[in-house]
Amino acid sequence: MTPDPRATPPAGSGGADKFDDDEYPAYTMGRAAEMLGTSQNFLRSLDEAGLIEPQRSPGGHRRYSRQQLRIAARVRELVDQGTAVEAACRIVSLEDQLHESQRQNEELRSAE
């Protein structure tokens, strides 16, 4: 994904270099929903399910990172295939846990 030039970082946050950071909360809820082709309610449901916890702007608005948008896109794929949102969130969470366990196992094998 390419950073949205309309999504500007808060004043004094270090400028455009933050957009290279996958964890930087560069996208508003409206822009994130637009990019994903979904509704803002869908994003709220991911927050309520505990899968994605967006940062909040000083005004209390949700802000999403590119990494969070990738996770939301994975959930949306499952939902589009007929999976319930709650089940899709659990599947994505378990997939992430599996990938992390595999990475740790590979590290341990490499260290031997």
Automatic annotation (TrEMBL):
Ranges where the record places region Disordered: 1-25
InterPro entries: DNA-bd_dom_put_sf, MerR-type_HTH_dom, MerR_fam
Coiled-coil annotated spans: 84-111
Assigned keywords, A-Z: Coiled coil, DNA-binding
Cited PROSITE patterns: HTH_MERR_2
Single Gene Ontology MF annotation: DNA binding
Protein biosynthesis as UniProt keyword: no
Pfam family, one: MerR_1
Boundaries of every HTH merR-type domain copy: 26-94
Highest taxon of the lineage: Bacteria
UniProt protein name: MerR family transcriptional regulator
Species annotation: Amycolatopsis dendrobii
Phylogenetic placement of the source organism: Bacteria, Bacillati, Actinomycetota, Actinomycetes, Pseudonocardiales
